[in-house]
C-alpha cells in the first residue's frame, strides 16, 4: 500500500511521486473511477521534452477520453510499458502498477498536497 | 421561481443503486447508474450471461379509447392499428417536416389501450405531440411516466431468470409463459397482485425482457431478480454498458443518430415509415418527398487498433471531409473500434475506405454494414 500522504497532486487529477530529480506521474483513483474502464493509453516517447501543463498523452475509456498533462518541465526518462499493454492497470492500481511516466525535472513547481487535492474533489 | 437549479429526479430504485456502489450520471435530469463496478464487465455479462438495468427514467404515455388506434396511426409513422393485442412495435414520432421528435416502442395492451414508451429526454415533447395529434380522435392521452418503473433483464440467461419468478410464490403471474413470448411481443399480468407488463424487448442486441411495474413494486422486483439471477451470473448493469451494447447492435440513440432534422431514411429507418397505410399521418408528405439531394446517410465504420472515433469527430475521404461520427467506442465484444457516422451519399458502400480524425490523427476506417454485432440464432 503506497503512502499517499507522500504524494503530490495536480488539479488535473494526477499524482506525482518525487524521488530525487525524477517525478513519477499517474492519474488518481478519483480520475480513474470517473473515466471508467481504461482501454487505451498513449504515452510520450522516452527522451521527449515535456512542458508543465501541456498535454503529453491520452487515457481512453469505453466512455470517454482523458488527457495526460505534464505536471513538470523536463524530459521523459521512462514510460510504463505494462500499462500500455494492460490499460486496466490504471483502474486496478492507479497509484501503483498503473503509473504512467517518469520525468527528469530541473525545478519542481508548487503542487497540491493530498489534503488540498482531497478538498478539491470533495471526497 | 428564484431557484433556477434543475430538479434532479431519482428512480424508485435509487437507494438500491447507492447501496450497490453505483456511480451516477445525469441522464435527462435523472440521476441514473452509469456503472456499478466496471463498464466492460457489465457489457460482457449481458453478452454472455445476463445484466439487470434500471430504466425507470423512460417515459410511458398511455393512449386509450375507441379512437386510440386511429390516433396513433395519425401520430406515428407506422401502422399501429395493424398490431394485435400483446404485440409491440418500434415506431417514430415525426415532425411535419419529416424529422424525428422521438423513437418509441408501442405496446398494444388491450384492443383500445396502447402504451407508448418514449425516451426520457423526449418525454414532454413526445407527450405533447401525442396529445395534440390525438385531439381530433376519440382517444385520451395520459403521461404515466411518474408512476411506472421499468426494469430490463437482458442476456442469454434472461429467460431462465424471468421464468423463475413465474414459479409458485415467485410473485410474477403471467397469462403467457415468458418462453412462449415471441420477440417484440408482450403480456399483461401481475407482480405481487399489481399490474405488470412484460415485453420480450430490449436495447442490447441480446434476448431479454423488459418489465413494467408500479414504482412501489420496483424495489421488490429488482431484489427478486437479483436473488433469482445472481447464481446464474446476473449483474446489475449501468447506462455506460447499455450504450456500448446498443452501439454494437447498431441501434440508434436519440440525440446521437436521431434528431428533429434527421429523416428516417437517413438513419436507415425507412422501413419504419409505412407509406402504404391509408390516411394521412404527421410527416407523411415530407417523408414522401424525401430528404434534400445529397443528404448524409448513416453507416457503420470499423477501424484498426484501439483508438475509437467519438461523437462529433469528422470523417474524411482522402483530404475531403465527408461526414461526422454520431457514436463510437472500442467495441468490448469485437475488440476493434466501431462507430456510426453520417456520411455523404457517395461513400456509403461497405468496403469504402475512409479516415476518422481522432484528435488530429487520421485513423483509417472502413464502411461496414450495420449492425456490428448480431447474436447467434438459437
Automatic annotation (TrEMBL), chain A:
Family matches, as InterPro entries: 2-oxoA_DH_lipoyl-BS, Biotin_lipoyl, GCV_H, GCV_H/Fam206, GCV_H_sub, Single_hybrid_motif
> What cofactor(s) does the depicted protein rely on?
(R)-lipoate
Q: Which gene encodes it?
A: gcvH
* GO aspect biological process, one term: glycine decarboxylation via glycine cleavage system
NCBIfam families assigned: gcvH (TIGR00527), PRK01202.1 (NF002270)
Q: Would the keyword Acetylation turn up in this protein's UniProt record?
A: no
User: The organism sits in which domain of life?
Assistant: Bacteria
Q: Can you name this protein?
A: Glycine cleavage system H protein
Q: N6-lipoyllysine modification sites?
A: 63
What family does this belong to?
Belongs to the GcvH family.
Any binding details for the cofactor? Answer: Binds 1 lipoyl cofactor covalently.
Record carries keyword DNA repair: no
Subunit relationships = The glycine cleavage system is composed of four proteins: P, T, L and H.
Q: What does this protein do?
A: The glycine cleavage system catalyzes the degradation of glycine. The H protein shuttles the methylamine group of glycine from the P protein to the T protein.
Q: Name one Pfam family in it.
A: GCV_H
TrEMBL record, chain B:
**Example of a GO cellular component annotation carried by this entry:** glycine cleavage complex
Q: Which Gene3D superfamilies match?
A: Aminomethyltransferase beta-barrel domains, Aminomethyltransferase fragment, Probable tRNA modification gtpase trme, domain 1
According to the entry, every stretch annotated as the GCVT N-terminal domain falls at 13-277
Give the residue range of the signal peptide: none
Looking up InterPro entries in the UniProt record yields:
GcvT (IPR006223), GcvT/YgfZ/DmdA (IPR028896), GcvT/YgfZ_C (IPR029043), GcvT_bac (IPR022903), GcvT_C (IPR013977), GCVT_N (IPR006222), TrmE/GcvT-like (IPR027266)
Q: Which SUPFAM superfamilies match?
A: Aminomethyltransferase beta-barrel domain, Folate-binding domain
Gene Ontology terms describing biological process? glycine decarboxylation via glycine cleavage system; methylation
Residue numbers binding substrate: 210
**Reaction(s) catalysed by this chain's protein:** N(6)-[(R)-S(8)-aminomethyldihydrolipoyl]-L-lysyl-[protein] + (6S)-5,6,7,8-tetrahydrofolate = N(6)-[(R)-dihydrolipoyl]-L-lysyl-[protein] + (6R)-5,10-methylene-5,6,7,8-tetrahydrofolate + NH4(+)
Enumerate the UniProt keywords alphabetically: Aminotransferase, Methyltransferase, Transferase
**Per its UniProt entry, what is the enzyme's top EC class, as one word?**
transferase
* HAMAP family (alphabetical): GcvT
Family from the record: Belongs to the GcvT family.
Q: Which PANTHER family match?
A: AMINOMETHYLTRANSFERASE, AMINOMETHYLTRANSFERASE, MITOCHONDRIAL
Free-text function comment from the UniProt entry:
The glycine cleavage system catalyzes the degradation of glycine.
The name under which this protein is listed is Aminomethyltransferase
This protein's encoding gene: gcvT
